[in-house]
Design a protein that fits this description.
With 171 residues, the chain is mainly α. Helix content is 81%, strand content 0%. It is built from six helices and no strands.
């Protein structure tokens, strides 16, 4: 259920960040959903890492989930203080590189359609973080591509699967 909660709000923040990059949401409004989602995923990660039933697998899941938390909190911080995002861009490269072996390992060990979806999602998220590296750190003119990629991934890697998990449609 915690994964459903996290994915549901990851979907929301990806969609809204994409709309923000397209100019449909203002710089002063977008920090709220980023702080909120960063906080939700942080709390989920802390439960996974330090909860009573924490084990090696849950701590590993927490470490990877914190990549999302820190990204959203950094976006919110940058919008709050007016930073240009280059530091976040370089962090995005770190995350993009980290997500590749996570995707490969998840796909290689897949035993269900859910595992295949998760591995494919990690590959997609790696590509999105790479776009943010190119956009923010290297200042490539990729805003529209990054925005639409964020919206589409928000729908298919966050919002829909998060809703289905919360609703009990998938387990």
């Amino acid at each position: 259920m915690l994964l459903g909660l996290a994915l549901f709000y990851v979907g929301a923040v990806l969609i809204l960040n994409g709309l923000w990059m397209l100019g449909h949401i203002g710089d002063r409004e977008i920090p709220l959903i980023n702080f909120f989602t960063g906080g939700i995923t942080l709390l989920v990660s802390l439960k996974l890492a330090f909860g009573a039933d924490a084990d090696a697998a849950s701590i590993k899941a927490a470490a990877f989930s914190l990549l999302f938390s820190f990204t959203y909190l950094w976006v919110a911080f940058n919008r709050h203080n007016g930073a240009d995002g280059r530091g976040l861009g370089w962090f995005s490269l770190f995350v993009a590189i980290t997500a590749v072996p996570v995707a490969v390992e998840t796909l290689a060990g897949a035993k269900s359609s859910w595992d295949l979806w998760l591995g494919t999602s990690w590959a997609a998220w790696s590509g999105l973080w790479l776009l943010f590296f190119l956009l923010l750190a290297l200042q490539k003119p990729l805003t529209r591509l990054a925005a639409w990629t964020s919206i589409v991934q928000g729908i298919f890697t966050g919002w829909v699967p998060g809703y289905l998990l919360l609703n009990g449609t998938i387990r």
